[in-house]
Amino acid sequence: MEEKPLNSEAGRRIIPPLSRSWIRRLASEVDSISASLDQSLAEIDSIDPLASKKTPEATPKIDHSTLATTNPHDDSVVEGYLTVKRQQQLTSHLGTTITSAYQPSAVLSNPPSPADITLELLLASQSHLGHSTSLWNPANARYIFGIRAGIHIISLDVTAAHLRRACRVVSGVAERAGVILFVGTRKGQDRCVVNAARLAGGCHLFERWTPGAITNGHQILGRCRMKVVDALDQEIGGYERQLLDRPVLKPDLVVCLNPLENYILLHECGLNGIPTVGVIDTDANPTWVTYPIPANDDSLRCVQVIAGALGKAGEEGQKRRRERALAGEITYTPEKLEEPDSATSDTNNVNSEQAEEAEQATEDGDGQDNIYISRDHV
Questions:
Q1: Close Cβ partners of 10 (under 8 Å, ≥ 6 residues apart)
Q2: What angle do CA 329, 332, 336 make, to 5 degrees?
Q3: What is the sign, positive or negative, of the torsion defined by CA atoms of 348, 351, 356, 361?
Q4: pTM of the predicted model, to two decimals?
Q5: φ, ψ (nearest 5 deg) of residue 324
């Protein structure tokens, strides 16, 4: 049978009429859109009268000298500001004054003296924290207090005792005009090393140690300038020719803040009989140094506290040496040198008056018997 088209004139199928549900849905959407438009137009119509009634006002200017506005009709802001200021003046003295309990730079600007070393200070500087138990050196068993969370805890009683002993050693060497070398080559240790050397009147090193600087010093340090000073550390001229043939100076004491990285330095000191002071952590060998200080060498604050205490001890030793020199007592063995060249001494001796006062203060009155050789502090 042949299928007849529904609309023979258009040659197309006739679309069936829409159902009532679709018509109802379209009508509801159109009604909601028209209702929202009417609501927005009503809001705009309500805002227009208010905008037309309000006139723009200029922003009042403020006089910086009196902090008052130039508009005489609106002084509420100024009155409120002055009221707050009056209340602050009346209540500023009430309450407590909060001061900073910890200042990181105080350890460098005002380091603790050996008498100020306490267990609380060492605990606050994290001196008790060691390394993991798997990294420990059995030679440090006498310095370890216990284990917590897999980490060795260093006994602070032992740390305080060894630190005080090292301070006495540094003070004694400084009192006898010895050359003290402070070494700290880790990152962040340069400031505390320089400050400790400045206080103790010694030398400092915060870069890599040059191997052979002690055992082969005549080749490495042969061009370093030396000078002759009196009991009051005043330079005496005229001995330049005699110093050319003398061997280079060696330190009388070496303070090493990180012995693990400076094992070559400690080995050279051992070969030349130079005593050493070192910060020994639980992973280091305490037999490397002469006077070990068991503490946390990874904590920068701990290293700053130890270096500051040693520097203060050296400063006290230098002070006692100068006081005894003014009283006519020499605390060191003076060097025996020949008479200086008269022409050279007249041109190079800048502090001649101070040198004469130092000679008069000595027991024998002979300045040539109370001089010692020192290297310029770098």
A1: none
A2: 105
A3: negative
A4: 0.66
A5: -70, -30
What DSSP character marks residue 113?
P
Is the Cα dihedral 270, 191, 110, 323 positive or negative? Answer: positive
Q: Quote the CA–CA distance of 293 and 126 in Å, as a whole number.
A: 14
- Measured CA to CA in angstroms, residue 79 lies from 59, 63, 86, 288 at distances of 17, 14, 11, 75
Terminal-residue alpha carbon distance, the chain: 119
Q: Rounded CA gap, 293 and 295, in Å?
A: 6
Gap between the Cα atoms of 303 and 256, Å rounded: 10
β partners of residue 372: 229
The 10s digit of each residue's pLDDT in 296-348 is 999 999 999 999 999 999 999 999 999 998 988 888 877 777 777 654 444 44
Looking up tokens 């290293």 gives 303
The 10s digit of each residue's pLDDT in 64-75 is 666 555 555 556
Distance CA 246, CA 218 (A): 10
Positive/negative CA dihedral, 366, 368, 374, 376: positive
Tell me which DSSP letter residue 112 carries: P
pLDDT tens-digit series, residues 142-194: 999 999 999 999 999 999 999 999 999 999 999 999 999 999 999 999 999 99
DSSP readout, 70-116? S-TT--HHHHHHHHHHHHHHHHTTSS-----S--TTHHHHSPPPGGG
Q: How far apart are CA 370 and CA 356, in angstroms?
A: 12
CA–CA distances in Å: residue 213 to residues 66, 199, 209, 251, 267: 70, 24, 8, 11, 12
Tokens representing residue 239 in the block? 């001995």
Q: CA–CA separation, 251 vs 374, rounded Å?
A: 10
Region of 126 on the Ramachandran plot (φ > 0 left; ψ -120 to 50 alpha; else beta): left
Helix axes 190-200, 300-326, angle to 10 degrees: 10
Q: Name the packing angle between helices 300-326 and 352-361 (round to 10°).
A: 70
Report d(CA 231, CA 239) in Å as an integer: 16
- According to DSSP, the β-strands at 235-236 and 226-229 are antiparallel
